[in-house]
Amino acid sequence: MAETSALSGLSWPVRTERLLIRQATPADAETTWRYRRLEPVNRWLTRAPDTLEAYRAQFQEPEALAKTLVLEHDSEVIGDLMVAVEDAWAQVEVADRARGVQAELGWSLDPAHAGRGLATEAVRELIRLCFEELRLRRVTANCFAENEASWRLMERVGMRRELYTVRESLHRSKGWLDGIGYALLADEWAAGR
Protein backbone atom coordinates (compact mmCIF):
# COMPACT_ATOMS: atom_id res chain seq x y z
CA MET A 1 0.00 0.00 0.00
CA ALA A 2 1.47 3.37 -1.00
CA GLU A 3 0.46 5.20 2.21
CA THR A 4 2.27 2.79 4.52
CA SER A 5 5.53 2.71 2.60
CA ALA A 6 5.54 6.44 1.87
CA LEU A 7 5.18 7.77 5.41
CA SER A 8 7.04 4.98 7.17
CA GLY A 9 10.09 5.75 5.04
CA LEU A 10 10.48 9.21 6.59
CA SER A 11 12.36 10.09 9.79
CA TRP A 12 9.94 10.78 12.63
CA PRO A 13 9.25 12.94 14.48
CA VAL A 14 9.54 16.14 12.46
CA ARG A 15 9.83 19.43 14.30
CA THR A 16 8.78 22.89 13.22
CA GLU A 17 9.26 26.10 15.19
CA ARG A 18 6.37 25.28 17.57
CA LEU A 19 5.17 21.78 16.68
CA LEU A 20 6.18 18.17 16.74
CA ILE A 21 4.67 16.08 13.93
CA ARG A 22 4.77 12.31 14.26
CA GLN A 23 3.09 9.21 12.94
CA ALA A 24 -0.11 8.33 14.77
CA THR A 25 -0.27 5.27 16.98
CA PRO A 26 -3.32 3.37 18.26
CA ALA A 27 -2.82 5.15 21.60
CA ASP A 28 -3.69 8.49 19.92
CA ALA A 29 -7.33 7.52 19.42
CA GLU A 30 -8.58 8.93 22.71
CA THR A 31 -6.63 12.21 22.54
CA THR A 32 -7.72 12.95 18.97
CA TRP A 33 -11.32 11.97 19.83
CA ARG A 34 -11.41 14.76 22.44
CA TYR A 35 -11.38 17.50 19.81
CA ARG A 36 -12.77 15.57 16.83
CA ARG A 37 -16.06 15.00 18.70
CA LEU A 38 -16.53 18.76 19.22
CA GLU A 39 -19.21 20.24 16.95
CA PRO A 40 -17.00 22.90 15.29
CA VAL A 41 -14.63 20.12 14.15
CA ASN A 42 -17.08 17.24 13.79
CA ARG A 43 -19.43 19.09 11.43
CA TRP A 44 -16.85 19.02 8.61
CA LEU A 45 -15.30 15.56 9.08
CA THR A 46 -15.88 12.87 6.48
CA ARG A 47 -16.52 10.27 9.18
CA ALA A 48 -17.88 11.22 12.59
CA PRO A 49 -18.60 8.23 14.82
CA ASP A 50 -20.89 8.83 17.81
CA THR A 51 -18.85 6.99 20.44
CA LEU A 52 -15.22 6.68 21.46
CA GLU A 53 -15.39 2.94 20.80
CA ALA A 54 -16.61 3.45 17.22
CA TYR A 55 -14.04 6.19 16.67
CA ARG A 56 -11.23 4.02 18.07
CA ALA A 57 -12.17 1.18 15.70
CA GLN A 58 -12.09 3.61 12.73
CA PHE A 59 -8.88 5.36 13.86
CA GLN A 60 -7.01 2.10 14.39
CA GLU A 61 -7.83 0.61 10.98
CA PRO A 62 -4.40 -0.10 9.43
CA GLU A 63 -5.13 1.93 6.29
CA ALA A 64 -6.31 4.95 8.31
CA LEU A 65 -3.45 4.77 10.79
CA ALA A 66 -0.90 4.50 7.97
CA LYS A 67 -1.83 7.93 6.58
CA THR A 68 -2.39 9.81 9.86
CA LEU A 69 0.06 12.15 11.53
CA VAL A 70 -0.40 13.75 14.95
CA LEU A 71 0.46 17.34 15.92
CA GLU A 72 1.86 18.12 19.34
CA HIS A 73 2.36 21.57 20.85
CA ASP A 74 4.11 21.72 24.23
CA SER A 75 3.76 17.90 24.48
CA GLU A 76 -0.03 18.07 24.04
CA VAL A 77 -1.83 16.51 21.06
CA ILE A 78 -3.66 19.43 19.40
CA GLY A 79 -4.46 18.16 15.92
CA ASP A 80 -3.92 15.63 13.20
CA LEU A 81 -3.02 15.52 9.53
CA MET A 82 -3.81 13.08 6.75
CA VAL A 83 -1.52 12.25 3.84
CA ALA A 84 -3.13 9.85 1.36
CA VAL A 85 -0.53 9.12 -1.32
CA GLU A 86 -2.30 8.12 -4.50
CA ASP A 87 -1.93 7.53 -8.20
CA ALA A 88 -2.58 10.31 -10.70
CA TRP A 89 -5.05 9.71 -13.51
CA ALA A 90 -3.19 8.47 -16.57
CA GLN A 91 -3.68 6.74 -19.87
CA VAL A 92 -2.98 3.02 -19.76
CA GLU A 93 0.28 3.22 -21.71
CA VAL A 94 1.89 5.53 -19.13
CA ALA A 95 0.02 4.49 -15.97
CA ASP A 96 3.17 3.09 -14.37
CA ARG A 97 4.65 6.64 -14.32
CA ALA A 98 1.55 7.96 -12.49
CA ARG A 99 1.73 5.59 -9.50
CA GLY A 100 2.11 7.21 -6.09
CA VAL A 101 2.95 10.67 -7.44
CA GLN A 102 0.43 12.81 -5.59
CA ALA A 103 -1.31 13.06 -2.23
CA GLU A 104 -4.60 14.25 -0.85
CA LEU A 105 -4.10 16.21 2.36
CA GLY A 106 -6.45 16.72 5.27
CA TRP A 107 -6.34 18.20 8.76
CA SER A 108 -8.21 18.88 11.95
CA LEU A 109 -7.23 21.07 14.88
CA ASP A 110 -8.50 21.39 18.42
CA PRO A 111 -10.50 24.68 18.42
CA ALA A 112 -8.79 25.64 21.69
CA HIS A 113 -5.60 26.10 19.65
CA ALA A 114 -7.10 27.90 16.64
CA GLY A 115 -6.15 31.42 15.62
CA ARG A 116 -2.44 31.16 16.42
CA GLY A 117 -1.16 29.96 13.05
CA LEU A 118 -0.48 26.42 14.25
CA ALA A 119 -2.54 24.76 11.51
CA THR A 120 -0.80 26.90 8.88
CA GLU A 121 2.60 25.95 10.30
CA ALA A 122 1.64 22.27 10.31
CA VAL A 123 0.23 22.20 6.77
CA ARG A 124 3.23 24.13 5.39
CA GLU A 125 5.49 21.48 6.88
CA LEU A 126 3.27 18.73 5.54
CA ILE A 127 3.56 20.18 2.04
CA ARG A 128 7.34 20.44 2.44
CA LEU A 129 7.46 16.77 3.45
CA CYS A 130 5.36 15.80 0.44
CA PHE A 131 7.58 17.63 -2.03
CA GLU A 132 11.06 17.39 -0.50
CA GLU A 133 10.97 14.06 1.31
CA LEU A 134 8.34 12.02 -0.53
CA ARG A 135 9.21 13.62 -3.90
CA LEU A 136 5.57 13.92 -4.92
CA ARG A 137 4.62 16.09 -7.88
CA ARG A 138 1.23 17.36 -6.65
CA VAL A 139 -0.87 17.74 -3.50
CA THR A 140 -4.61 18.34 -3.29
CA ALA A 141 -7.16 19.19 -0.59
CA ASN A 142 -10.94 19.38 -0.67
CA CYS A 143 -13.65 20.72 1.61
CA PHE A 144 -17.24 21.89 1.74
CA ALA A 145 -17.47 25.46 0.44
CA GLU A 146 -19.03 26.51 3.76
CA ASN A 147 -15.88 25.39 5.60
CA GLU A 148 -14.22 28.75 5.15
CA ALA A 149 -11.51 28.13 7.75
CA SER A 150 -10.28 25.13 5.76
CA TRP A 151 -10.20 26.74 2.33
CA ARG A 152 -8.64 29.91 3.74
CA LEU A 153 -5.88 27.68 5.15
CA MET A 154 -5.39 26.15 1.71
CA GLU A 155 -4.92 29.64 0.30
CA ARG A 156 -2.53 30.71 3.09
CA VAL A 157 -0.20 27.82 2.29
CA GLY A 158 -0.14 28.72 -1.40
CA MET A 159 -2.59 26.23 -2.85
CA ARG A 160 -4.63 27.26 -5.89
CA ARG A 161 -8.37 26.80 -6.20
CA GLU A 162 -8.98 24.39 -9.06
CA LEU A 163 -12.53 23.30 -8.48
CA TYR A 164 -15.83 24.71 -7.33
CA THR A 165 -18.74 22.30 -7.52
CA VAL A 166 -22.41 23.16 -7.06
CA ARG A 167 -24.38 21.01 -4.60
CA GLU A 168 -22.11 18.06 -5.37
CA SER A 169 -21.14 17.14 -1.80
CA LEU A 170 -23.63 15.51 0.55
CA HIS A 171 -23.34 16.66 4.16
CA ARG A 172 -24.79 14.45 6.91
CA SER A 173 -27.08 17.21 8.28
CA LYS A 174 -26.98 20.12 5.81
CA GLY A 175 -27.91 18.20 2.66
CA TRP A 176 -26.26 18.88 -0.71
CA LEU A 177 -23.55 21.54 -0.43
CA ASP A 178 -21.07 23.15 -2.77
CA GLY A 179 -17.53 21.77 -2.68
CA ILE A 180 -14.11 23.30 -3.26
CA GLY A 181 -10.84 21.68 -4.37
CA TYR A 182 -7.34 23.13 -4.16
CA ALA A 183 -3.98 21.88 -5.42
CA LEU A 184 -0.31 22.74 -5.56
CA LEU A 185 2.43 21.40 -7.83
CA ALA A 186 5.97 20.78 -6.62
CA ASP A 187 7.43 23.29 -9.06
CA GLU A 188 4.90 25.96 -7.97
CA TRP A 189 5.82 25.33 -4.35
CA ALA A 190 9.55 25.56 -5.10
CA ALA A 191 9.07 28.82 -7.03
CA GLY A 192 7.09 30.31 -4.12
CA ARG A 193 9.76 29.58 -1.54
The residue-averaged pLDDT reads: 95
Q: Judging by the overall fold, what is the CATH architecture of the domain at 2-136?
A: 3-Layer(aba) Sandwich
Helix content range of the residues, please? 25-40%
Give the SSE order as H and E letters: HEEHHHHEEEHEHEEH
Shape: globular
InterPro entries: Acyl_CoA_acyltransferase, GNAT_dom, N-acetyltransferase
Domain N-acetyltransferase: 19-187
Keywords: Transferase
GO molecular function: acyltransferase activity, transferring groups other than amino-acyl groups
Fold topology:
Layout: H1 2-8, E1 14-15, E2 20-23, H2 29-36, H3 39-42, H4 52-59, H5 62-66, E3 68-73, E4 76-86, E5 102-109, H6 118-133, E6 138-144, H7 148-156, E7 160-171, E8 175-185, H8 186-192
Parallel strand pairs: 5-6
Antiparallel strand pairs: 1-2, 2-3, 3-4, 4-5, 6-8, 7-8
